[in-house]
Amino acid sequence: MAKRRCLSNEVIETDDFLELSKDARLLYFMLNMNADDLGFIGKPKAIARQNECNTECIDELEKAGFIIRFPSGVVCICHWLIHNTLKNDRKQDTRYQEELSRIYPDDNRIYRMDTDGNHLESKRNPDGNEPETKWNPDGIQTETNGIPTEDRITEEKETEEKRREVNRSQQKQKTTEETEKQKSTEGETIPVPVPVSVSVEDEEDLLSFVTTAFGETPNDEDRESIHTLLKEGYTVQQIRGAMLVTGQSSSVWNRWAHVTGVIRKQKR
C-alpha cells in the first residue's frame, strides 16, 4: 500500500464538504490516509475512535455522499479516483473484493453503488458464479486478471494511430508551406552592404551636410547614424541623396530611419 495520499481541492473545497461538521471533515481526512490503494477502509469505527470522532460522523459522511458503507462495515471513499491515481506497477489490489464487485466508477470517476447490477458487465463462469470485476486507478474496467479488455486495447491502438496520422499530416503540410515559401523568395536578392573602414573625412563631410539637409546643427545621434551607414558600405553620394530626399519633413527621432529606408530602396 502506498505511503502517501493526496486530496483534491475539487472535493474538499466544495460547499457540500465544507457544510460537514468539523469532526466529520477530520474523519474524512483520516479515512483517506488509512485507505488501501483502491480507497477501501476496513475499520472506519476504530479510526473514528482514534481521532476522538463519534461514529455518527460516519453516518454524516455517508449521507452527504462522500463514502459508501457496506453491510460488512467496510467503507470506501467515493471520490478516491479523483484524489489518488496510482500506476498499476505500484498499486496493490484491495482485500475487499466482495465490496469492490458492488461498485463502479461513473463518468466523473466517482464510485457509485451498483444497485441494479447493470453496470458490472461481467461474464459468468461455467459454474454459474460471477467472476470478480476489477477497475484500474483510472476508472477503466479490466478483466478479472487485471489485463485491459480486448475492446479497450483496440480502442487505444486506433486512437494512437489517429494521433500519428494527424502528426504526419501536419508535418507534411508544414514541409509544403516551407517549400512554397522558399520558391516564392527565389530570385529575390536583397543587397547586404559589406562592412568597410570609415573615412574620417567622409564622416565630417556628411556631418557638415546635416545643416544643409535638415536645417539643424548635427548632434551625437547624427554622428552615430552617419558612422553606421558608412561602415555598412554606403557611399557619401548615396547618403547625401537620401538626406536630401528626407529633408526637414521628418522629426529628429526618425529622420535616420527614413534616410536608411531611402538608401536601401535605391539599392534594390
Mind explaining what this structure looks like?
The protein is mostly helical and 268 residues long. The chain has helices at 9-12, 15-18, 22-34, 44-50, 56-64, 80-83, 97-100, 150-185, 200-214, 220-231, 236-246, 255-267, and strands at 40-41, 67-69, 75-77, 103-105, 111-113, 134-135, 141-142. The longest helix is centred in the middle third of the chain and has 36 residues, at 150-185. The two termini are 74 Å apart. The model is unreliable at 122-133 and 143-147 (pLDDT under 50).
Key structural traits:
268 residues, mainly alpha, two-stranded antiparallel sheet, 12 helices, 7 strands, elongated
The helix-strand sequence is HHHEHHEEHHEEEEHHHHH
Number of DSSP E strands: 7
For the sheet with most strands, the description reads:
3 strands, antiparallel
Q: What's the end-to-end separation, in Å?
A: 74 Å
The residue ranges in which pLDDT falls below 50 over 5 or more consecutive positions are 122-133, 143-147
Indicate how many domains the architecture comprises: 2
Radius of gyration in whole Å, from Cα? 39 Å
What's the average pLDDT? 79
Helix content: 40-55%
Oligomerization state: single chain
Structural class: mainly alpha
Q: Output the strand order for the largest sheet.
A: 1-3-2
Indicate the proportion of strand residues: 5-15%
Number of H/I helices: 12
Shape: elongated
Secondary-structure blueprint:
Blueprint: H1 9-12, H2 15-18, H3 22-34, E1 40-41, H4 44-50, H5 56-64, E2 67-69, E3 75-77, H6 80-83, H7 97-100, E4 103-105, E5 111-113, E6 134-135, E7 141-142, H8 150-185, H9 200-214, H10 220-231, H11 236-246, H12 255-267
Antiparallel strand pairs: 1-3, 2-3, 4-5, 6-7
